[in-house]
Each structure stands twice: as C-alpha cells, then as structure tokens.
Fold this protein.
Amino acid sequence: MDFDFRILAVLAPIAIAASWAGFNIFKAALGQVQEFLNKRDA
C-alpha cells in the first residue's frame, strides 16, 4: 500500500497557515490579557 504524498502537499501549507494564524491570535490575546491585568493592578 503506497502513501499518496499529494495529500500531504495539499494539507501541509494549510496546516502551516492555520498554525501561524493561531499563534498570532494567541499572542495578541495573551498581550491583551497581560494589559488588562496590568491596568487592574494599577
């Protein structure tokens, strides 16, 4: 049984883009949470 690497060629860029977007969203959300906590303490 051969593995069809065309599936990987299609899904890999989508997975990379999704993980990059998720990373950026997480980073922005974390920054907002830290900003909120800093304003609350002040």
